[in-house]
């Protein structure tokens, strides 16, 4: 017999184990979300019946009245939060989305497992009505844990292509393809890239878009054209230095963020390379930083403030209709041409 959870009740994890699926899939079946195969849905429903699992749809009603507060959760360090323009823009967009409501916004940094556990206890106590979660990493369990307690949750970005929690994202792969194709159209043939963190889907998508475009444009593509960064300016400097060491004849750089592109520009200047005469550079985000680099940065714009407002809209819909199907929104990106390419 399967082990029981607290108070002898079967848990969502036990249902998932018996059905041979992930707990996110169980949540989607329970919430009647689309995109689940009939065979998988049947297996989950059988496991629910066999274990006698009772979905906790009533938990919110039992928890008491609304708090009129939502949390914006950022699982990053203070250094990254305060130095990357993305976060200030997303906060601005979220604030605009909440401006015509009575909801208060609570900002929370979750940097450790202890802080995650403390936030989960806060959420379980129903001190908030919903959660906006940005900068998600591949193995972050927080979205699923919030979903299991029927807490309305919307992600800014996603953990993988199989995300099971509502999200708002940008066309990261398409934006990267556009950037590389522009570089190739101007005659650049040795186009290198500086990636973001490998454990973030946003970085994986931008790398995929880069590789798809560069393989089509450059016959002699070499995997060593790819240097790892972590979305910080320092990583952009170091990665650019390594790329110059390996490929002194490179003529273009696609950096997966404006901040890393700024670091790359610093290294290129120190190495005596002229931008864009010797090396063209394109970033990603179109943050305010892009207009203050020297020369001004050509970049891929993702409408971060719009994404923040859209996240709020999706969250408000969830709060108004608990148990509704999850939603995903992907916004377009566009190339903004300035002086570096």
From TrEMBL:
SMART domains: HTH_LACI (SM00354)
Gene3D superfamilies: 3.40.50.2300, lambda repressor-like DNA-binding domains
Swiss-Prot/TrEMBL keywords: DNA-binding, Transcription, Transcription regulation
GO molecular function, one term: DNA-binding transcription factor activity
SUPFAM superfamilies: lambda repressor-like DNA-binding domains, Periplasmic binding protein-like I
Top-level lineage group: Bacteria
Domain HTH lacI-type: 10-64
PANTHER family associated with the record: HTH-TYPE TRANSCRIPTIONAL REGULATOR GALS, LACI-RELATED TRANSCRIPTIONAL REPRESSOR
Name by which UniProt lists this protein: LacI family transcriptional regulator
């Amino acid at each position: 017999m399967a082990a029981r959870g607290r108070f002898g009740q079967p848990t969502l994890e036990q249902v998932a184990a018996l059905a041979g699926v992930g707990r996110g899939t169980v949540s989607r079946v329970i919430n009647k979300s689309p995109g689940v195969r009939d065979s998988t849905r049947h297996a989950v429903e059988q496991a629910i019946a066999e274990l006698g699992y009772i979905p906790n749809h009533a938990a919110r009603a039992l928890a008491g009245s609304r708090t009129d507060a939502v949390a914006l959760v950022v699982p990053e360090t203070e250094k990254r939060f305060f130095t990357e323009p993305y976060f200030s823009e997303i906060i601005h967009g979220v604030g605009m989305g909440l401006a015509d409501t009575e909801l208060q916004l609570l900002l929370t940094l979750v940097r450790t497992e202890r802080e995650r556990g403390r936030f989960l206890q806060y959420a379980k106590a129903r001190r908030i009505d919903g959660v906006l979660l940005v900068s998600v990493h591949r193995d972050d369990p927080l979205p699923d844990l919030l979903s299991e307690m029927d807490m309305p949750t919307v992600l800014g970005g996603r953990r993988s292509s199989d995300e099971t929690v509502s999200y708002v994202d940008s066309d990261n792969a398409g934006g990267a393809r556009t950037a590389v194709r522009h570089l190739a159209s101007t005659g650049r043939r040795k186009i290198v890239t500086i990636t973001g963190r490998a454990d973030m889907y946003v970085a994986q998508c931008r790398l995929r878009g880069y590789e798809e475009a560069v393989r089509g444009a450059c016959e002699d593509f070499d995997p060593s054209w790819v240097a790892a960064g972590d979305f910080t300016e320092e990583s952009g400097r170091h990665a650019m230095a390594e790329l110059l060491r390996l490929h002194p004849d490179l003529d273009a750089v696609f950096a997966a963020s404006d901040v890393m592109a700024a670091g790359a520009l610093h290294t290129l200047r120190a190495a005596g390379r002229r931008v864009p005469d010797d090396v063209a550079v394109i970033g990603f985000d179109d943050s305010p930083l892009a207009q203050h680099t020297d020369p001004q940065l050509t970049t891929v714009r993702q409408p971060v403030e719009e994404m923040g407002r859209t996240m709020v809209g999706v969250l408000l819909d969830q709060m108004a209709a608990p148990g509704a199907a999850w939603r995903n929104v992907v916004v377009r990106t566009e190339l903004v041409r300035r002086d570096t390419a």
